[in-house]
Amino acid sequence: MNHDRSHDLFSRAQALLPGGVNSPVRAFKSVGGEPFFVERADGPCLYDVDGNRYIDYVGSWGPMIVGHNHPEVRAAVERAIGNGLSYGAPCAAEVTMAERITRLVPSCEMVRMVNSGTEATLSAIRLARGATGRMKIVKFEGCYHGHGDSFLVKAGSGALTFGVPTSPGVPKSLADLTLTLPYNDFDAATALFEQEGGEIAGLIIEPVVGNANCLPPREGYLQHLRELCTRHGALLIFDEVMTGFRVALGGAQARYGVAPDLSTFGKIIGGGMPVGAYGGRRELMSQIAPAGPIYQAGTLSGNPVAMAAGLAMLDLVSEPGFHDRLEATTHALCDGLEAAARAAGVPFTTTRVGAMFGLFFTDAPTVDTYAQAVACDTAAFNRFFHAMLERGVFLAPSAFEAGFVSSAHDEAAIGATLEAARAAFLEVADA
Ligand code: PMP
Fold first, then answer.
1. Of 54, 169, 269, 399, which has the highest C-beta tally within 10 A?
2. What is the pLDDT of residues 341-360, one digit of tens each?
3. Burial label, 324 (beta-carbon count in 10 A; 0-12, 13-18, 19+)
4. What is the 3-state secondary structure (H, E, C) of the chain?
5. 351 lines ligand 1 (CB under 6 A)
6. 151 lines ligand 1 (CB under 6 A)
């Protein structure tokens, strides 16, 4: 594969953008090598500036659940653009979006639109603190909730990938208010709440962790957290930025039957535009300005073009059978990858939840804790990543990110991916 034009762009970018990118994991730092620069995207594929094609399992890190450049999403955006780009005054699409979210996710009786997942989680913990009058929050090792100061404590995603799970620049006094727990450990959560329960404003969790590879919750774990929060008067916050509308139409809370007090969303509800949202019980959300005293605002929030893209996306994912078909695709992909690894003699396993999956280079039959995820063979993952990329398959460029399938990943795309994987696993075995 030729990468001359990407290489040239990356050289120029490195002089002007920190690390050459506008978001860290894009830089390929942990897998080595240089990123490709995208010219266009369509269906399950990205096309780079050198004319190479990649079957894409990153999906813009989650939003592209119906594939890239979907004609209905594009048409909705084109219609919206004809009416102007931003109003700074209310528009009908915001009401439709709120109606849609509250219908699909019943624990959200009211919502507020924002512009990113980071804004959604920042706002949700401000609300949790404001509503309870308590200041401590609980998060889980390896979970990523955006780059808000309170969350960059033992964080996942790029923070974990680059070995700075707790970032310089986060005031110690604030970091001290963030308590961390090991995910899927029942007793640790019970013990922490027994000790600190009276001071905890809220517990925030990715109900399926997608930022430390992909870790599904153990049976009853989310229920256990629900009970602890209720017993100790803390708010349970599900960060469904990745899982929302993906692991089920109603998100992880529908899939596992646990209702949080607050939820945060992003990615899919923006259809690829910069969007986030948070929502929850009416009595809590009514405390947000201007209905109540807890302040949160946004110049571009509820942007008409972004609402149009998100609504078109939600229409598509609401079609009967959509999530079942995606889940079948994930299984076909992961079963095929496991078979290819076995044939090559490479210790490897996968996790799958709906349209999310995890790839683990390990002897363990399954992986569902952060400690297990970080103990996997990242060098083997990196070799596999490059062997796949060379064969036109783009996986997340880090061993600590979930993969995503979309409805555009048809049999041909999965077949081509598995063919690449059979050769790539042999390369890993030979190394
Ligand atoms: N929460 C989760 C679970 C995420 O995966 C992410 C981003 N990957 C965020 C929050 C932050 O979203 P954004 O990048 O849109 O700020």
1. 269
2. 999 999 999 999 999 999 99
3. exposed
4. CCCHHHHHHHHHHHHHCHHHCCCHHHHCCCCCCCCCCEEEEEECEEEECCCCEEEECCHHHCCCCCCECCHHHHHHHHHHHCCCCCCCCCCHHHHHHHHHHHHHCCCCCEEEEECCHHHHHHHHHHHHHHHHCCCEEEEECCCCCCCCHHHCCCCCCHHHHCCCCCCCCCCHHHHCCEEEECCCCHHHHHHHHHHHHHHEEEEEECCCECCCCCECCCCCHHHHHHHHHHHHCCEEEEECCCCCCCCCCCHHHHHHCCCCCEEEEEHHHHECECCEEEEECHHHHCCECCCCCECCCCCCCCCHHHHHHHHHHHHHHCCCCHHHHHHHHHHHHHHHHHHHHHHHCCCCEEEEECCEEEEECCCCCCCCCHHHHHHCCHHHHHHHHHHHHHCCEECCCCCCCCEECCCCCCHHHHHHHHHHHHHHHHHHHHC
5. no
6. no
pLDDT reported for residue 160: 64
The stretch 159-184 carries a mean pLDDT of: 82
- Residue pair 205/140 in contact (Cβ under 8 Å)? The answer is yes
Radius of gyration of the CA atoms of the chain, in A: 21
Is the predicted pLDDT of residue 166 greater than 80, yes or no? Answer: no
| CA 65 to centroid of ligand 1, rounded, Å | 16
**ipTM of the complex in this document:** 0.99
Whether 156 has a pLDDT exceeding 90, the answer reads no
- Residues 109, 102: contact at Cβ < 8 Å? yes
Closest C-alpha to ligand 1, atom 1 = 145
Q: What is the rounded distance in angstroms from the CA atom of residue 337 to the CA atom of residue 367?
A: 16
Looking from the CA of residue 267, the nearest atom of ligand 1 is 15
Whether pLDDT at 42 is above 80: yes
pLDDT at 154: 77
What is the C-alpha to C-alpha distance for residues 234 and 428, in angstroms, rounded to an integer?
47
Any ligand 1 atom below 6 A from CB of 253: no
Judge whether residue 381 has pLDDT over 70: yes
Look up the pTM and report it.
Answer: 0.97
